């Protein structure tokens, strides 16, 4: 299957929510033929000190961001509309459609992201696929802007917030500044932007 050049980026921990359990989080993303997005989140650290939700049957679930989960926000370059997708290590997921900044609602369609989770002593990985009909465009050649993010819950209940870029102030994954990665259609080079409860 033809895909765009896979791109791997590192997430940055918000300075106001430091983590002693996590050494780093990287995300590998590519756009496969037809427009779907394939993502692999890789968390490296002391997993004994991280609260990882136990496996559950794949299903839609809200408020996944209150515990350890991985997130991607997708917008068409130049547009206000965007989608939010949450993937939990439990296998649960959520999807939301926004017309503009924080103005949106839950996606009604099943997401069926095919989540695959694997773990070792110091690494947790989650793979997921988002299909074209769940993205804010039906045009397979549209340029997309992504905000890649993660929330990590530690054994003491503290949460750390990770993103490609954090806007000033408290964590805000919805902020336009967070959409720091531009990804091209398949067979076109990916361009990285090097500059890298309230609800994140």
Task: Please name the defining characteristics of this protein.
200 residues; disordered C terminus; mainly beta; nine-stranded antiparallel sheet; 0% helix; globular; five-stranded antiparallel sheet; Immunoglobulin-like
Describe the structure.
The strands form 2 sheets. Strands 2, 5, 6, 7, 8, 11, 12, 13 and 14 form a 9-stranded antiparallel β-sheet that branches. Strand 5 and strand 6 (82-87) form a beta hairpin. The chain is an all-beta fold. The chain contains no helices and 14 strands. 0% of the residues lie in helices and 42% in strands. The chain has a single domain (7-192), classed as Immunoglobulin-like.
Q: How many structural units, i.e. domains?
A: 1
- Radius of gyration, in angstroms, nearest whole number: 16 Å
Residue-averaged pLDDT: 89
Name of the CATH class: Mainly Beta
**Helix and strand composition category:** mainly beta
Per the CATH scheme, the topology name is Immunoglobulin-like
Number of helices: 0
Instruction: Report the span from N to C terminus.
Output: 34 Å
As a percent range, the share of helical residues equals under 10%
**How much of the polypeptide forms β-strand, as a percent range?**
35-45%
| General form | globular
Put the structure in a nutshell.
The protein has 200 residues and is an all-beta fold. Helix content is 0%, strand content 42%.
